[in-house]
Every structure is written in C-alpha cells, then in structure tokens.
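Renewal narrative, Specific Aim 1. Our central claim is that a sequence can be written position by position from structural information alone. The example that follows is taken directly from our test logs and has not been curated for this report. It begins with the structure tokens describing the chain, in the order in which they were read.
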C-alpha cells in the first residue's frame, strides 16, 4: 500500500509551525500546491469540523487528522515530523511529534478506512515511531515506510464469499474490526454467542471439571459475518491479526470459515459518514 500512496512531496520535516491551527493551514496549503485538493477553504472547514468531534491525537505524540470531502482530488497521505513537538490541544497526551494527515474524496470510503486502520496500527509501534523521528530527510522517511510494506496481493477475480469469523476472545473485538478494515472488509454483522466448550464448562454441571480449564476465559464469543470478494482477504486478515497479537492458530482464540456464495441480493455495504 505505502508505495502506491506515498508521495515524497507530501513528506515534511520540521515545518515552521507553532500551533495546531498553523499546522492545519500549512498542511492544507502544501497539499493544495501539489494538486491533491481542489478547494482549500472547503477542505480546511471539513478538517476543523472533524477535529471538533474529537481530538485526533489518538496516542501519545501522534496525531491522525483527516477529512473526507468533495474538495479532494484524490486520496493522499501527508507525513509531518515535528522533532520538538507542538501543542495539539490535548494535555493528557502532550505535544505531537508525528502527524499522519489524510484526505480523500467522498467516493473513496473503503480506501480511506483502510489507510486509517493501517496507519493507526503502524503508529502504535514505538520502535517505528523512534525510527521515524530519527529520519533526517524525506528519502529516509520514504525508505522507512517501504520497510513496512506488506507483500503484494496476488491477482484474483472478484467473486462472492461469506466469511464467518468466530472470536473466543471477545475483549479483542475492536482490534479485530480494525484489522478487518485494514484488509478492505468494511461490512460485518456481529452476533454475541457462546461456544459449545464454554457452554459445557460454565453451565452444565455434568461437565463441571471443564470449568477449571476455562478459568479466566470469557464465557462468551463473537461471531462476525462478512461479505468478501476475494478469498485471499481471509488469509490477509489472519496475518494482520497476528500483528495485533491475535493468533487464530492458537487454541481457544478463534477461527475463520469461508463459503462461496452463488449470489448476493441487495447491497452489503453501509454508507458511513465521517
């Protein structure tokens, strides 16, 4: 993904900004000069409107400001490194030093969500953060991003599949959803359930001895039903989940089933506003 999305001209190290508003105005001007947005005022308004909903400094020293508007020509990512940091109006998190700034047109929902999810996971890696802050020029930043490039997707014709993910670690549902978005799965129906083993261990006296084995494990599981167009997405999801420390090859974590469908009636995607 990175080599297809990153433009070196949108990598900026130590811009002369002193505040969050300076940063936003400067970013919008810079992106406009490189033909990624059509209307500076409209995009800046969308950016500030999104920021008012909730502060985008989502982790210590890292911010992910973003906006989706018709004023954007094409999906973009701007990487800004502020080695001394700036105040981002979020005292609990402190100064921001790394900014991943996104924009996309209104018809690029899925790509937009994928980019946000992938960036969020990568930026939680403290080792990656330190490497990024050590970069002295845009070439070093670009090369570093390519080190974290995923394997190329193999060509596969679109089809219709039902993917059922059984997750026994229900407390990890947020991480699973983020991983799904990262591989391009943005539709899912989630059902809270109980596995056979947990039902026996927690509710059937005749199998009371199993409760010892179930000690510390949640009694509930989650079932996620999703439509996918490529079977490969299920394998990609397994690989991304490992990066979240969710290994479906380990007993008691969960598993994925993929079933080919003859047809799909109706639209399986939801229109989500940001």
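The sequence written for that structure reads:
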């Amino acid at each position: 993904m990175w080599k297809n999305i990153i433009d070196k001209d949108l990598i900026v190290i130590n811009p002369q900004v002193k505040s969050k508003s300076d940063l936003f105005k400067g970013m919008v001007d810079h992106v406009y000069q490189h033909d990624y947005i059509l209307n500076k005022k409209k995009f800046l308004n969308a950016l500030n409107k999104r920021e008012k909903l909730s502060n985008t400094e989502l982790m210590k020293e890292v911010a992910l400001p973003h906006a989706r508007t018709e004023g954007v020509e094409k999906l973009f990512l701007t990487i800004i490194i502020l080695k001394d940091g700036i105040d981002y109006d979020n005292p609990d998190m402190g100064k921001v030093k790394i900014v991943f700034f996104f924009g996309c047109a209104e018809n690029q929902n899925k790509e937009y969500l994928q980019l946000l999810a992938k960036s969020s996971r990568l930026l939680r890696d403290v080792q990656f953060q330190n490497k990024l802050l050590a970069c002295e020029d845009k070439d070093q930043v670009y090369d570093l991003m390519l080190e974290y490039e995923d394997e190329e997707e193999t060509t596969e014709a679109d089809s219709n599949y039902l993917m059922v993910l059984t997750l026994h670690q229900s407390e990890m549902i947020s991480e699973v959803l983020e991983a799904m978005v990262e591989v391009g799965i943005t539709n899912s129906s989630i059902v809270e359930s109980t596995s056979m083993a947990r039902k026996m261990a927690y509710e059937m006296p005749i199998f009371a001895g199993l409760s010892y084995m179930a000690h510390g494990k949640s009694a509930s599981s989650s079932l996620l039903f999703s439509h996918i167009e490529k079977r490969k997405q299920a394998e990609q999801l397994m690989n991304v989940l490992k990066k979240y420390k969710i290994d479906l090859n380990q007993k008691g974590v969960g598993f994925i089933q993929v079933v080919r469908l003859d047809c799909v009636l109706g639209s399986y995607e939801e229109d989500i506003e940001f």
